[in-house]
Amino acid sequence: VSRGAQSLLYRLSLTMKPQVVFVLGGPGAGKGTQCSKIVENYSYTHLSAGDLLRAERAREGSEFGQLIDNYIKEGRIVPVEITINLLRKAMEETMKKDDKKFRFLIDGFPRNEDNLTGWNTVMVDKADVKFVLFFDCSNEVCIDRCLERGKSSGRTDDNRESLEKRIQTYLQSTRPIIELYEKHGKVRTVDASRSVDKSVAQVLENHETVQNS
C-alpha cells in the first residue's frame, strides 16, 4: 500500500505546476536580499533571472554567452526566449530534486511587455503566477546602493553609466508591467527605501499573503 501511495504522490508531483511570485523593482531595490530572507523563513526557492543569465554568460561553451554579455553591459533586456528557457530549466531541476519545492520567487522578471508575452505564450499552462511582489524605491536610493555594491560585487553593470541606462529601461519597460498587474489586484508593495531589516519585517508581516494567495 505504501509503495502504491508513494507512486501516486510521485506522479502527482510530476503534474504539479510551479507556484510563482514575480519579484520586481528597480536596480538596487534590494530584491535579492529580501528574497533570501523570505527563503530563510518560508518554503520558497529564489530564482534570479539576472543571476541565471550571468551564470549562463560565464558557462564555458555557452552559445548565448557573448550575446548576454553585450545586452547586460548596455543595460538592455536579454531576449525573452533565453531567459524563459533558463527559468523553466531551473524550476524543473528544483522540483525534480525535491517535489516539496514547488513555490518560486522569480526575481527580475518579467521586465518588459515582450517578457510577459513570452511567459504567457510558453508558460501559461506550466506555472501559476500568484502575484507580483513589488519593491518600491526611489531612483536616487537605487543608484547609491548599486554604486556602493559595485565596489565589491565585481558586476560590470554596477557603474553610473550602466545604472542610468538600467533605470531608464526599468521606468520605460518594467513599471508598465507592474501597473498592469496592479489593475488586476495582483501586486503586493513593499517600501524598499527603508533599511533592509525594516523592509524584510514588512515582507514577513505579510507572509500569509505570500503563502495563501
UniProtKB/TrEMBL annotation:
A ribonucleoside 5'-phosphate binds at residues 54, 76-78, 108-111, 155, 166. It catalyses: UDP + ATP = UTP + ADP; dADP + GTP = dATP + GDP; thiamine diphosphate + ADP = thiamine triphosphate + AMP; GTP + UDP = UTP + GDP. InterPro entries: Adenylat/UMP-CMP_kin, Adenylat_kinase_CS, P-loop_NTPase, UMP_CMP_kinase. Gene3D superfamilies: P-loop containing nucleotide triphosphate hydrolases. One of its GO terms (biological process) is pyrimidine nucleotide biosynthetic process. The keyword Cytoplasm applies. Keywords: ATP-binding, Cytoplasm, Kinase, Nucleotide-binding, Nucleus, Pyrimidine biosynthesis, Transferase. It holds the Pfam family ADK. Residues 48-78 are annotated as: NMPbind. It is found in: Cytoplasm; Nucleus. Its EC number is 2.7.4.14, 2.7.4.6. ATP binds at residues 28-33, 149, 194. Its cofactor is Mg(2+). The keyword Nucleus applies. CMP binds at residue 115. Residues 148-158 are annotated as: LID. Monomer. HAMAP family: Adenylate_kinase_Adk (MF_00235), Adenylate_kinase_UMP_CMP_kin (MF_03172). Belongs to the adenylate kinase family. UMP-CMP kinase subfamily. Consists of three domains, a large central CORE domain and two small peripheral domains, NMPbind and LID, which undergo movements during catalysis. The LID domain closes over the site of phosphoryl transfer upon ATP binding. Assembling and dissambling the active center during each catalytic cycle provides an effective means to prevent ATP hydrolysis. Catalyzes the phosphorylation of pyrimidine nucleoside monophosphates at the expense of ATP. Plays an important role in de novo pyrimidine nucleotide biosynthesis. Has preference for UMP and CMP as phosphate acceptors. Also displays broad nucleoside diphosphate kinase activity. This is UMP-CMP kinase. It comes from Gasterosteus aculeatus. The gene is CMPK1.
